[in-house]
């Protein structure tokens, strides 16, 4: 299985449905996209991610310098 | 004394009695149904809250659109459900002045939110029917949590305890991301903790009495405690709080459905988002903070309260309408008693209409400057319209009249470049900076020349008496 957003294969099962055997939720350990096995996932091209996009992402809020 | 609610359940009961809550027996799928239900409820005029009782794969229920109509908003205040927006604005203004009302501290045994405790194998999915709100969201989000944090430098200063609403993305069974925007109170506290490389203790509360949720999304001053405002808005009836289990200086609403305790991991940012936001578009993915959950307490059979947000108007627009307008009005009124009313209902105050008396020439612009230096107005407000004191800023027909008859664009429209902005505004560029536009739609007052002096029409004599006669005839069905 690969991540539908960044194509990474570092995917884990986050959780199985608490009641019955209805679904599982997966999460990508590279970009933290998560999805349910019962969903039809179609990440639009503009929301797809790669290493460069992640590296250049804005940080909110900025990390301050360490105190003395 | 207006009706008040101790917890979400009491409010839901009132909504149901007033015909403002419907139940979906289900079972429904988490996606796309739960998001779709929220959207549909908001699209109905006077839309109800919707309690979804059975969701595939989950144990407990979910409620959405709790604040999503003017009727529900009026019932939150204990008013008649048909109270007008202006009446609700005025009632909020009256109660606002009762601040501060000290909350009532209850013992752990008395607090329903402590009925159950989880400290091992923490799994949010066991309690909360989590779901994707909008299709391109990066995951499942908590959109309506009241988040409690303290000031690391002054932990015992109750005034500096902050209760705010921040979007939260579920990253794992026991870990969530949080959006702490630089201009929000939580960012001040986080910066202090991160300078020392210390975790910031945090409590995420879900399913609160509606005025706690209302105050959590209200832009009050850093040194003003939101719980003391809840008591004021309950017309003097204190709200009930209890100490968090994992941190001595955090206090949570005693009646919360679920309390998630943990800490923000210091100096750590990972991908969060995208997320469909209140301006009606997605806000992109950014590197944001994460919270490690260490403990959950919850009521028996917890109800997950969450909201849909998207193209306005949705539930969040009702929630943020008057709680943005009232504090801005109070902040302006303090230094400028000429101000009559503030309508900051549009897109969380990105658009604001202020009605004011004009004390001397150019005063309208001065009122706009004051708005643009308030805690909320400085980053959020982009388009500011100032109208005369006789124009109702909540009545857009009157505001359009003022724009068309009082604005001379070459002198009354001002653009100020490179100002603080709101990153979620998709027109701000770079994200978080924008140009302000002030439109002074007031009548010129000396020393400003008014070469085209105009005479406002008066109502014909007897109009008011005839108004009563005609209404009476209508009632009789003539
Ligand atoms: Zn990924």
UniProtKB/TrEMBL annotation, chain A:
UniProt-listed InterPro entries: VdcD-like (IPR047707)
Pfam families in the cross-refs: EcdD_BsdD_detox
Protein name: Vanillic acid non-oxidative decarboxylation protein
UniProtKB/TrEMBL annotation, chain B:
Catalytic activity: 4-hydroxybenzoate + H(+) = phenol + CO2
Record-annotated 3-octaprenyl-4-hydroxybenzoate carboxy-lyase-like C-terminal domain positions: 318-441
3-octaprenyl-4-hydroxybenzoate carboxy-lyase-like N-terminal domain location: 12-91
Key words of the record: Aromatic hydrocarbons catabolism, Detoxification
Entry GO CC: cytosol
Residue ranges constituting the 3-octaprenyl-4-hydroxybenzoate carboxy-lyase-like Rift-related domain according to the UniProt record: 104-311
Keyword Membrane: no
Catalytic EC class: lyase
One GO-annotated biological process of the protein: ubiquinone biosynthetic process
A molecular function GO annotation: 4-hydroxybenzoate decarboxylase activity
Enzyme Commission no: 4.1.1.61
PANTHER family: 3-OCTAPRENYL-4-HYDROXYBENZOATE CARBOXY-LYASE-RELATED, FERULIC ACID DECARBOXYLASE 1
Family: Belongs to the UbiD family.
Family annotation (NCBIfam families): UbiD family decarboxylase, VdcC
Protein name, UniProt field: Phenolic acid decarboxylase
Source organism of the structure: Youngiibacter fragilis 232.1
């Amino acid at each position: 299985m690969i991540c539908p957003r960044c194509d990474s294969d570092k995917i884990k099962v986050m959780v199985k449905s608490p009641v019955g055997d209805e679904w599982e939720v997966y999460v990508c350990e590279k970009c933290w996209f998560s999805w349910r096995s019962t969903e039809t996932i179609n990440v639009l091209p503009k929301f797809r991610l790669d290493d460069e996009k992640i590296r250049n992402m804005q940080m909110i809020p900025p990390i301050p310098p360490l105190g003395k | 004394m207006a009706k008040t609610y101790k917890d979400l359940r009491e409010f839901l009961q009132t909504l149901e009695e007033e015909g403002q809550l419907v139940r979906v027996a289900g079972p429904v799928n988490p996606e796309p149904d739960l998001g779709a239900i929220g959207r549909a409820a908001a699209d109905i005029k006077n839309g109800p809250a919707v309690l979804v009782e059975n969701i595939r794969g989950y144990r407990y229920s979910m409620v959405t659109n709790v604040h999503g109509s003017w009727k529900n908003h009026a019932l939150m205040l204990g008013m008649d459900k048909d109270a007008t927006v202006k009446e609700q604005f005025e009632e909020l203004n009256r109660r606002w002045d009762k601040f501060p009302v000290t909350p009532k501290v209850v013992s752990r045994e008395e607090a329903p939110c402590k009925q159950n405790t989880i400290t091992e194998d923490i799994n949010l999915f066991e309690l909360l029917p989590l779901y994707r709100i909008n299709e391109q969201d990066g995951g499942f989000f908590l959109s309506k949590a009241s988040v409690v944090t303290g000031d690391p430098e002054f932990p015992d200063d109750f005034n500096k305890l902050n209760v705010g609403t921040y979007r939260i993305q579920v990253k794992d069974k026991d870990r969530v991301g949080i959006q702490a925007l630089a201009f929000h109170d939580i960012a001040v506290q986080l910066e202090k903790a991160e300078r020392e490389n210390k975790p910031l203790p945090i409590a995420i509360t879900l399913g609160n009495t509606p005025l706690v949720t209302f105050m959590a999304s209200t832009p009050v001053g850093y040194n003003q405690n939101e719980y003391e405002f809840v008591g004021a808005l309950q017309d003097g009836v204190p709200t009930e709080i209890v100490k968090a289990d994992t941190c001595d200086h955090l206090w949570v609403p005693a009646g919360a459905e679920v309390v998630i305790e943990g800490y923000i991991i210091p100096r750590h940012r990972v991908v969060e988002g995208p997320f469909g936001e209140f301006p009606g578009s997605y806000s992109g993915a950014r590197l944001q903070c994460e919270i490690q959950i260490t403990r959950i307490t919850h009521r028996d059979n917890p109800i997950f309260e969450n909201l849909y947000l998207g193209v306005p108007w949705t539930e969040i627009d009702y929630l943020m309408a008057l709680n943005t307008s009232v504090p801005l009005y109070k902040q302006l009124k303090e230094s400028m008693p000429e101000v009559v009313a503030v309508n900051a209902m549009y897109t969380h105050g990105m658009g604001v209409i202020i009605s004011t008396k004009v004390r001397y020439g150019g005063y309208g612009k001065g009122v706009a400057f004051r708005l643009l230096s308030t805690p909320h107005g400085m980053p959020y407000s982009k388009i500011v319209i100032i109208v005369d004191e006789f124009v109702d800023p909540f009545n857009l027909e009157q505001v359009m009249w003022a724009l068309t008859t009082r604005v001379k664009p070459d002198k009354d429209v001002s653009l100020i470049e490179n100002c603080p902005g709101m990153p979620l505004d998709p027109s701000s560029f770079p994200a978080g900076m924008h140009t302000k536009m002030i439109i002074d739609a007031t009548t010129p007052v000396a020393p400003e020349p008014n070469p085209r002096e105009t005479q406002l029409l008066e109502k014909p004599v007897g109009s008011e008496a005839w108004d009563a006669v005609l209404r009476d005839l209508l009632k009789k069905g003539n």
